[in-house]
Amino acid sequence: MNSPHSTTPSTPATHYYVPQPSLYPFMLSGGMFLLALGFVLKMHDYAPGPWIMLGGVGVIVYVMFNWFGRVIAENQRGAYGDWEDKSFRHGMIWFIASEVAFFAAFFGALFYVRVLSVPALAGMDPAFTLWPGFTGGWPSAGPQGASFTPMGAWGIPALNTALLLTSGATLTWAHWGMLQNRRSQLKLGLLATILLGAAFMGFQIWEYHHAYSELGLTLGAGVYGATFFLLTGFHGFHVTLGAIMLTVVYGRCLKGHFNAERHFAFEGVAWYWHFVDVVWLGLFVFVYWL
Amino acid sequence: MSQDHPAARSLDRSDDAAPPHAHTDGAQHAAPHGLLRWLMTTNHKDIGSMYLIFSLFMFFVGGAMILAVRAELFQPGLQLMQPEFFNQLIGVHALVMIFAALMPAATGFANWQIPLMIGAPDMALPRINNWGFWLLPPAAVLLMLPFALAVFGIGDGALATGWTFYAPLSVQGGIGVDFAIFAVHILGVSSILGSINIIVTIFNLRAPGMTMMKLPLFCWGWLVTAFLLIATIPVLAGAVTMLLTDRHFGTSFFNAAGGGDPILFQHLFWFFGHPEVYILLLPVWGLMPHVLATFSRKPVYGYKAQVYSFIAIGVLAVVVWAHHFFTAGLPVPALLYFMYSTMAISLPLAVLFYCWIATMWRGAMSFETPMLFAQGFIVLFGIAGLTGLVLADVAADAQYHHSYFVVAHFHYALFAGGIMGVMTGAYYWLPKWTGHMFDERLGKAHFWLTVISFNLTFMPQFFLGLAGMPRRIPDYALQFAEFNAISTVGAFILGLSQLIFAWNVVKSIRGARNGLPRADERVWEGAQGLEWELSSPPPHHSWEVQPVVK
Amino acid sequence: MNSEEEAAMFAPEELARRRAASRRLAWALGAAVVALYLLGLFVKR
Predict the structure, then answer these.
(1) A163 and A41 in one domain?
(2) Is the model's pLDDT at B26 over the cut of 70?
(3) Are B352 and B409 a contacting pair, CB within 8 Å?
(4) Is B363 helix (H, G, I), strand (E, B) or coil?
(5) Residue A8: inside a domain, yes or no?
(6) Are residues B519 and C15, on separate chains, in Cβ contact within 8 Å?
(7) What is the mean pLDDT of residues A111-129?
């Protein structure tokens, strides 16, 4: 058959790195299984639940240390070239895209309750509703939610906005240091970013404490409480993850890893950090401010 | 393990067949043996085989569940089980078939075929690839574990809400709902990892000269699938997370007393759920033109039209979700919008049907098993599409909604469209994977038994639905008895005929010991494409040296 | 270049015969569909 393809070898430099067989993916799956199993049992008050969860977390942490460690080692001995680097970049971009979709679900829920369900509950014919006195408006805990004081935008949240935006700037400043081989600028910028992130998280915890102890704003405070805590909670979780990743990258910088041409780990984490930053802006506008 | 594991042998052979390259990353020589080989593998063909074997196994598990359901429905009245257990079986059947049978089958195809088709040495992210597979068995265990726990007095069995988890029923459900929520989370992680890997592989590992508009259609179908997964699976994860917090942490997402709305769950769920239909079908639509062209001994008709249709369907998929709950009480403008947008999907789909038929037009056709399944697919999936148009009509849907008409419709889409499409691909590529042909007579027997018993099972369900029989009930009124009896007989023949397929796969893997001839590299006379230029089975690192595509 | 068994090459006459057969079948199916459509016009509901 006359084939349109030929098998003339391309240049030998185009060899793609296929890693050694590895047990870590299997172990990580096992750890996630234990975490899920333990969590379900815990929620239904079976005694072994928390211990199974703890075991799962242990396995997950162990695997992450070793798996990332191995990837870093492969990187340090030069296993990855431009071709592999491009795969990592594409992979990180589409991973962040999936995270965008995850937050979109919660923003979607927020817009749905604000625009549709709360006004609809308030607008029902008084003769046919369980709650003729419900007037709607936002913030709202719905007809029968616990009463609460909403979180104001211009206290801690505004400060947190400033902190996160500044951390984005310091991270970019660190990146310039990387590109121009000014290592002390790189390290200083990274350290500042991590500290700003930690300060953000500290204020966020303080805010939660304030909400629960003084404002009556809890997970049970109707749809306002539900959307408030799930949106800010998942965001805080992502900030924490980002800060841990930044810390690892900082440690690697201290050990002299990366150079101006090859620093995917730094850039991947930076993209992630900026993504978390953008999500915060959405939160600040739609959860706290408007 | 490699002694008693059927697939191991064919893949061991692939090591022998590999050219004696000086350089590898040691993966070939340091490769662990036995069970560890499968736990640790980073090879796209090993991982593809695991996906396919897992898929086939879960296909029979999910099938056994629904045969129990059909047995209960053989006669009116309750004979075999209580309604609670019946509800658990139908919900878990659907989740198993969708997430553990159909999706892994398509991912197995992708793992095996994409590197072969685009001239790549492997998938772009091999360890992530392995992780993606090994998340599936734990998730399947989580899903079905509550059946076993109930036996020991823990909880009240598996998810009993149907696979759609609708609130508020799912908010009130037992421990099975929680297990299903985490199973969905883990399955979602697996899907996203697989999708990222496939996107990166297609974008970054194509052979020199293979532009996007020379990319094989199967890869195009999977590329759109992968983007749909990345856009929608996280939304499902978010929805079940809200369900979890509503169940255990006092939130009110789906509770009107707190300002939420049960319909919100339906929006979130079907924002994922409708694209999921195309996630299951796009890989099949992608492989169909390859098979039709091969056995018509003609080039694919309308390559560009099919690519654009895939993309159009991918875009439309995420904007039509509310047609799954027309009767939930949506405002009229929303009903009209979702009706028209849903019907718009029939346009790119009609383009695909046209291209499939035009590919065969004036071809020198022959009807080996894969071609037979492709023909069955086109006709029966056509019925799925036409009944789907009926359901998309808001006025008509009020009668059909939640009836057996819907059940029949989506089984024409997902069994005749999905499973028979997977069978098409499996028979088409099996000789490439095992290095031996399969038993053609068994294959033909499998096809005819499947087509006849499939229609025997599901055609009566259209009439049952039109006559008013609701879905998801263990008992029914007397006038539905005859059609239900026919449907049950058909279902048992259908289920048992699938064993022929499993047997045929084993025979092909055993190859010469079952007297089956070796397959050469091209396998089928009319086959075109890079994947047919490698030996059958292909060498360990598929395209160690990338071919140059002119 | 092809192998022994299943995928034996068709001779040119056989290929031509199959092409003609598939074209005839397509016309027949098309005619059947049109006939069904026309028949439908006369069916009273």
Answers:
(1) no
(2) no
(3) no
(4) coil
(5) no
(6) no
(7) 93
Which residues on chain B are in Cβ contact (under 8 Å) with A25? Answer: 127-128, 130-131, 134
Whether residue A261 is found in the same domain as residue A143 = yes
How far is residue B345 from each of residues A213, B280, B313, B342, measured CA to CA in Å? 52, 16, 6, 6
Domain end call among A55, A79, A103:
A79
CATH number of the domain that A196 lies in?
Answer: 1.20.120.80
- Residue B311's contacts (CB-CB under 8 Å, 6 or more residues apart) are B224
pLDDT (tens digit per residue) in B395-453: 999 999 999 999 999 999 999 999 999 999 999 999 999 999 999 999 999 999 999 99
A87 domain-assigned = no
Decide yes or no: CATH 3.40.50.150 for domain B42-533.
Answer: no
Length of chain C as a residue count = 45
pLDDT tens digit sequence for B484-507: 999 999 999 999 999 999 999 999
Give residue-wise pLDDT tens across range A41-82.
999 999 999 999 999 999 999 999 999 999 999 999 989 999
Amino acid identity for residue B336 in this structure: L
Q: ipTM for the complex?
A: 0.94
> How confident is the model at residue C45, as a pLDDT?
67
Query: Rounded to an integer, what distance in angstroms lies between the CA atom of residue B119 and that of residue B543?
Result: 6
- Residue A11 sits at the chain B interface (C-beta within 8 Å): no
Residue A1 domain flag: no
Could you tell me if A29 and A149 lie in one domain?
Answer: no
Task: Count H helices and E strands in chain C, helices first.
Answer: 1, 0
CB contact under 8 A, B360 and C7: no
Same domain? A157 vs A70:
no
Is-contact B382 B436, C-beta < 8 A?
no
Spatial distance between the Cα atoms of B315 and B268, rounded to a whole number of angstroms? 17
Pick from B363, B440, B518: which is nearest to C22 by CB? Answer: B363
Q: Is A220 on the interface with B (CB under 8 A)?
A: yes
Whose CA is closest to B109, among B262, B260, B240, B222?
B222
For residue B69, is pLDDT > 60? Answer: yes
| Contacts with A190 (C-beta within 8 Å, 6 or more apart), sequence order | A170, A171, A174, A246, A249, A250, A253
Average pLDDT of the residues in B319-347: 96
* A9-38 core/surface letters (b: 16 or more CB in 10 A; e: else): eeeeeebbbbbbbbbbbbbbbbbbbbbbbb
Based on the domain organization, do A102 and A202 belong to the same domain? yes
- Domain count across chain A: 2
Shortest Cα–Cα distance, A191 to chain B (Å): 30
List, in order, residues 6 or more apart from A60 with CB less than 8 Å away.
Answer: A28, A31, A32, A35
Which chain C residue shows the shortest CA-CA distance from B532?
A: C2
Q: How many CB atoms lie within 10 A of CB B227?
A: 23
Instruction: Tell me if A210 is assigned to some domain.
Output: yes
Please tell me which residue of chain B has the smallest CA distance to A87.
B200
Residue to mutate among C22, C23, C33, C36, with most B CBs inside 10 A, is: C22
Q: Is the pTM above the cut of 0.80?
A: yes
**C11 reaches B (C-beta below 8 A):** no
Best probe of the B interface among A6, A8, A18, by most B CBs < 10 A, is: A18
Subunit contact A224:B533, Cβ cutoff 8 A: no
Does the pLDDT of residue C43 top 90, yes or no?
A: no
Sign, CA dihedral B99-B102-B105-B109, equals negative
Q: Does C22 touch chain B if contact means CB atoms closer than 8 Å?
A: yes
Residue B347 near chain A (CB below 8 Å): no
Checking if the pLDDT of A86 tops 50, the result is yes
* Domain around A42: 22-79
pLDDT tens column, B185-234? 999 999 999 999 999 999 999 999 999 999 999 999 999 999 999 999 99
Same domain, A143 and A249: yes
| Domain spans of chain B, in order of start | 42-533
Whether residue A152 sits in one domain with residue A260: yes
Picking from B160, B157, B162, the residue whose alpha carbon sits closest to that of residue B146 is B157
